Amino acid sequence: MPVRLHELAHCRAGDKGNVATLSVIPYADEDYPLLVRELTAERVRAQLARHLGGEVLRYELPLLPALQFVCTGVLDGGVTTSLALDTHGKSLSSRLLALELP
């Protein structure tokens, strides 16, 4: 049965210029392997495609446990220069947490 990412994890976000960093941290350590398997850079890119102009790099942090995604070409040039509404990394993290996992 599919589950939304926000049911398994929370997300911390940061942005600087046109780069956003999204860290996904499971509520329960035992869900980390599921996130490693299902939450690929490609899936994150697809989920946020409307807001990304660059690549998504994924870093695994098993000792935390967490996944970190560095997204480039986002935020319409950066929070302080964009005319778009709600372009902060926090908004991207909310969109990411809406992702449905199998």
TrEMBL record:
Residues 3-101 form the AtuA-like ferredoxin-fold domain. It holds the Pfam family AtuA_ferredoxin. It comes from the Bacteria. PANTHER family: PTHR47708, SI:CH73-132F6.5 (PTHR47708:SF2). This is AtuA-like ferredoxin-fold domain-containing protein. It comes from Pseudonocardia zijingensis.
